Amino acid sequence: MNKYKEELLNKRYKAEKRFQFYGQSAIFVALLFLTIFIFKIFSTGFTAFQKTWLIVPVNFDAELMLLDENPTKQDIEDADYYEIALQSMWNLDPNANEDQQNQLKRMVSYFFEREIKQELLKDPNLLGKTTEVYLTASDDLDQVFKGNYPRDLPEDQRRVSDYQLKIFDEMVVNEKVESKFNISFFTNADSREAELAGIASSFMGSIFSILVCLAIAFPVAVLAAIYLEEFAPKNRITDFIEVNINNLAAVPSIVFGLLGLGVLLAIFHLPRSTPLVGGITLSLMTLPTIIIAARASLKAVPPSIREAALAMGASKMQTTLHHTVPLSMPGTLSGTIIGLAQALGETAPLILIGMVAFVNTIPGSPMDPAASLPVQIYIWAESAERGFVEKVSACIMVLLGFLILMNLAAQIIRHKFEKKWS
Amino acid sequence: MNLVLFLFIVLLGFTSYYFGRRKAYAIQSTKTRLTALPKFYGYYLAIWCAIPAFIIFSLWAVFEPSIVKFLILSDYSNQGYLDDELNLIYEKTKSLARGQFTGEITPFIERSAEKYLNFRSIAQNSKIVIVLSIIIASVFYAYNRLSGNSRTREPVEKFLNAVLFAASLAAILTTLGIIFSLIFQTIDFFKVIPLLDFLFGTHWYPAKAFVRDASEPLDPSMYSDTFGSVPLFAGTFFIAFIAMCVAIPVGLMSGIYMAEYASNKVRQYAKPLIEILAGIPTVVYGFFAALTVGPFLKELGNSMGLEVSAESALAAGGVMGIMIIPFISSLSDDVITSVPQNLRDGSYAMGATKSETIKKVIFPAALPGIVGSVLLGISRAIGETMIVVMASGLAANLTFNPLDSTSTITAQIVVILIGDQAFGDPKTQAAFALGMTLFLVTLCLNIFALKVVKKYREKYE
Question: Could you tell me if residue B214 is inside a domain?
Fold first, then answer.
């Protein structure tokens, strides 16, 4: 072999190595993105599952609460708690001037009055005594305690004043600040105040939308798939239907939002901002996905099954409904779950039909206004308060958790129940 | 009330199933051979019972409100009211009848409300009577026709077939619904704004349309230079271009590697992991782009002395590219795997290395399929909404600087339609016109891409 040929061969081998390296690095880059992504979400989000409480001594002074002697339960219910709540915050620094007193009050959530009331309702014997009550810290102090707050900013650029920080630090030293699992994140509806905002309303909104979507999309899609795969003659109409299905699967989701707005809201006058409309809109989007999955799994049932049934004297309809469709169900179901998972993550169409409205109640039916988890992410991500950043990440974690669960369920159904024909 | 009637019809359906089957058994006991299984006699009767009733029931639900409205408003017809005022009167009447009216009650409206309640109860009662008599008539007719040699399975199956066919029309109906919901608003929009201004105008500034007093008549001249969509198209394609710059190399190379080089183990783990990227909701990508990538790029640019907007096209496009990687990688993986093995063998036999085979033989053979997958990726990038809404700017700048902020068609639709919409306002209509263009552009891309992919599949299967 002469030298020239050897060089050429070397060059070709090097090119081979380089090409392989490109491929490996492409996969590496894709996985790197995924890792950064997950890491970023988790590292900002996990703190949202903790909530900071200030432990404040409260004097349940019957006089300040405008209560007579021996009050009934109803009296305690109706009593004035604002004064004692205010007093207990002011008592954190007896020498505070009026401005500082205001700042003291803003160290806890505006809900503090209610929290104090709850404490007394739990144990009416506390009336006239002083006891320590857990009060939700304001979202800024919450962030300070979690170490997410830039304390070294000049004071006029912070929402937390030096005075508040001083009092807060004293409380930390005296162990009057405590961090506990944030139950209210799961049980509260949305709120303008980050420390009180929770995902309960958007979660219920998502559940209702998905149920409506399932109730409409699944039967229609399965019936359509059965027709197209088993009964449809090859003609222009069925060709046209097929082109339509493939197209709909690739139409941008926002166009479905326009459909919901222009037809469901403007023409049928269905109630705005509700999971009902959201679910119908999502079902139109999911329809092609389920049809395609159901057709694929019908196609995978071997013809011998059909032939055997036909040979036994079953009609075409009996063959299909008694044999082919049940055998195709695992594939159809896992396709349906994957379609629903897509629908669960969809945001743009729901924004257009008004599910971004601020809802601070937990919806009890699909006809009540609600947001959905992805829309909640959008709403929180758009608000400027620092406390919402971790909430967004936490909400994303909940949403991703559900998506993973649904995809796992789809996998399990597929692997466990699907027959392998060979 | 309607629910009760509905449940009652369902109940009657079940009952007639039972009677149909009982009749079949009775015929059987006379030693006559049945032409179908007894349950088909039941289904047959149940269909005859429920379907005509449901048809009447739903027709009633559709037409009753408009007929009642017509009857109520006929009192006001010759008094020179405008359509809007008539609608208002009708709404007042309805809310008064429901006892939710707040405001001044005029005798006119009170009379109408009484009339309304009256009509409603007449309608309600006659509906029940008609539906029930239809059920009785059709069940009797069908029941008497049942005999030993009557065909029951065929009609039942024909009915099922019709139901299946109707379900498959849902896809067509959805497409029609999309076109229907877009087209009227779009036509209204182009009545005010000339088509050429929309297509070739270079200023998009819909906020200007906010300041219109709704009571004044529309003056098209005030909208000149407001709805020029060139910056939006430019922004849309520019961001899609940036996305594809990320997605094509990474997606294509990882697809090729997966198909040709990767061991089974790598495939087994890496492929689903990459596909996770496709399952992440777009709003999550949007948050990531707006909160992490945007500020990161800004800081990076500032440290190099570049002016970078926090909402740069680069951030939105780049993150969108990450989202599209799995589409391109798994589609091109499929396409490459389906290239017949004998092409590879031929090339190896000639002494080509693996990468030479891929570059010179497999890639050209798979090219149509790969082009199809890239086109589907582009269509997805154009239609992507949340990333752009959250990470890119909302003001439509005509710029091709990736470090500047720009806006897209989808982002503008959201900006315009978020919150309350007034139908009939050029601003709202503009959103529908944008939706129409978006629909048409992606439709063409999809049809073309699907054709290419299908052609390619047919070639090798």
Answer: no
Of A6, A27, A15, nearest in space to B356 by CA: A15
Distances (CA, A) of B416 to B367, B401, B432: 40, 25, 10
d(CA B217, CA B223): 13
Residues B181 and A261 sit within 8 Å (Cβ to Cβ)? yes
Mark whether B279 and B400 lie in a shared domain.
yes
**Cβ separation of B386 and A378 shorter than 8 Å?**
yes
Q: Is the ipTM of this complex over 0.90?
A: no
Q: How many domains does chain B contain in total?
A: 2
Judging contacts by C-beta atoms under 8 Å, the chain A residues touching residue B161 are: 227, 231, 317
Domains in chain A, please, with CATH?
49-182 (no CATH), 200-417 (1.10.3720.10)
Q: Measured between beta carbons, which residues in chain A are less than 8 angstroms from residue B359?
A: 19
Joined together, the tokens standing for residue B405 give 């902020």
Of the candidates B148, B172, B205, which is a domain's last residue? B148
Nearest residue on chain B to A233, alpha-carbon basis = B165
Task: Assess A210–B contact: CB distance below 8 Å, yes or no.
Answer: no
Domain span at B404:
230-460
Assign residue B383 the CATH number of its domain: 1.10.3720.10
Please check whether residue A160 touches B, CB under 8 A: no
Q: Which of A299, A246, A359 is nearest to B172 (CA)?
A: A246
β partners of residue A132: A57
Residues B293-319 have a mean pLDDT of 87
What chain B residue is nearest to A242 in terms of C-alpha separation? B171
For B227, phi and psi rounded to 5 degrees?
Answer: -115, 55
Chain A: closest CA distance from residue B258 (Å): 8
Q: Which of A245, A253, A381 is facing B290, going by the closest CB pair? A: A381
Contact B356/A345, CB-based, under 8 Å?
no
Is B330 inside a domain boundary?
yes
Across residues B290-295, what is the average pLDDT? Answer: 88
Task: Give CA–CA dist B394/B381, Å, rounded.
Answer: 17
A284 in contact with chain B, both atoms CB, cutoff 8 A: yes
Backbone angles phi, psi at A147, to 5 degrees: 80, 15
Convert the pLDDT of each residue in A360-380 to its tens digit. 888 888 888 888 999 999 999
Q: Looking at the structure, do residues B116 and B238 belong to the same domain, yes or no?
A: no
Does a structural domain hold residue B218? no
Output the pTM of the full model. 0.87
- Same domain, yes or no: B378 and B273: yes
pLDDT above 70 for B221: no
* Residue B127 shares a structural domain with residue B262: no
What is the crossing angle of helices A387-417 and A3-45, to 10°?
120
Which residues 365-404 of A have a C-beta within 8 angstroms of B? 374-375, 377-378, 381-382, 389, 392-393, 396, 399-400, 403
- Flag if A224 and B390 touch (Cβ within 8 Å): no
> Which of B251, B423, B443 is the closest to A266 by Cβ?
B423
In tens, the pLDDT along B106-163 reads 777 778 888 888 888 888 888 889 888 988 998 888 888 887 777 888 889 999 999 9
Work out the average pLDDT over B17-37.
Answer: 86
pLDDT at B113: 81
Do residues B383 and B253 both lie within one domain? yes
Residue ending a domain, among B148, B172, B202, is B148
Lowest mean pLDDT among A276-280, A366-370, B88-92, B231-235: B88-92
Residues A269-316: tens digit of each pLDDT? 888 889 999 999 999 999 999 999 999 999 999 999 999 999 999 999
Strand order in the sheet with A50-59: A130-136, A50-59, A177-181
Tell if the CB–CB gap between B253 and A23 is shorter than 8 Å: yes
Put simply, the chain A residues between 290 and 309 with a CB less than 8 A from any chain B CB are 291
Q: Does residue B219 sit within a domain? A: no
